Amino acid sequence: MLSRKGIIPEEYVLTRLAEDPTEPRYRARERRARFVSKNGNCNVAHKNIREQGRFLQDVFTTLVDLKWPYTLLIFTMSFLCSWLLFAMVWWLIAFAHGDLAPGEGAAVPCVTSIHSFSSAFLFSIEVQVTIGFGGRMVTEECPLAILILIVQNIVGLMINAIMLGCIFMKTAQAHRRAETLIFSKHAVIALRHGRLCFMLRVGDLRKSMIISATIHMQVVRKTTSPEGEVVPLHQVDIPMENGVGGNSIFLVAPLIIYHVIDANSPLYDLAPCDLHHHQDLEIIVILEGVVETTGITTQARTSYLADEILWGQRFVPIVAEEDGRYTVDYSKFGNTIKVPTPLCTARQLEEDPSLLDVLTLARGPLRKRSMAVAKAKPKFSISPDSLS
């Protein structure tokens, strides 16, 4: 039926029908769960939190962290509840003063034109929202009504202040600015200055800069201590280097951030074959800085699993000078090319430097061959006489 509709190819259906059900099926190894997803979200679920009251001690942060539907629902209910509460208070004041019974109450009512709970509810909305249609107003007959008027105005101002503050903080959250901070989809390991380096590319799509931008990197893996203690998420800080030096970067154009794999690096014994079998390796990259336009600190995160690290490749150049200015071609942001790289660990390369000489000898004939091909190409020239 599905093959007739074109959803599943006919040959696939025939293959599935012809297979032997007695043969054992081999399932592919499940991919390791990420600690940090590619878009920067932390893949951590908090369960069995007994002290839920701690969240109410910081109500403002709790409201900001809530999703938009819940935040709007809470603000709507707070307005409705306050209007209904004070409407009940205004109705009781009018009832106690005898303003609800026409012709039997006092000559001067506490609040004019209140004859039912509906009119008291409308007056409550007018007071708190400061609409003032003019049909209802508080008189000097009842001091208690004047006090309630002051209290309701203060309560309305507090609700408005909290609502506006939460909406501003939710719209100006740091992760909104991080949407335009991008990382390369893959990281690469290749030679740079004669040493194996772990490299990635980072860029900013906006013209407004990230001030005091710093970048950090951590390796997260499952380890076991000599005493037998299992640490499921062991985090190790490793230094990142860039053209400026240190962890601070000047992120005007995309930069290639690299880490030199030396004896102090947790990647010192990482080999190309480990990238396909080392399922417990995850490298987290954190970019942090201050947004130039708002002054809010923002943070962008990403991670690379073992199968997202390309051995023996490097990023292609994407910055070029055109018409007196530098241009960036973001269509090639994550593009890489293969380069000669020793298929060994950094430890083996440091212990046996002759592996670099083998690469140098291998590159030599390639360069000579390319130069010979370039010389063999015919060169055409047009003389001025031939044009006449």
TrEMBL record:
A GO molecular-function annotation: transmembrane transporter binding
Keywords, sorted A to Z: ATP-binding, Disulfide bond, Ion channel, Ion transport, Membrane, Metal-binding, Nucleotide-binding, Phosphoprotein, Potassium, Potassium transport, Transmembrane, Transmembrane helix, Transport, Voltage-gated channel
Domain (Potassium channel inwardly rectifying transmembrane): residue spans on this chain: 36-173
Entry's transmembrane regions: 70-93, 145-168
Catalysed transformations (reactions): K(+)(in) = K(+)(out)
GO cellular component, one term: inward rectifying potassium channel
GO biological process: glucose metabolic process; negative regulation of insulin secretion; nervous system process; potassium ion import across plasma membrane; regulation of monoatomic ion transmembrane transport; response to ATP; response to xenobiotic stimulus
Family of the protein in this entry: Belongs to the inward rectifier-type potassium channel (TC 1.A.2.1) family. KCNJ11 subfamily.
Name assigned to this protein: ATP-sensitive inward rectifier potassium channel 11
Species classification: Eukaryota, Metazoa, Chordata, Craniata, Vertebrata
Gene (name only): KCNJ11
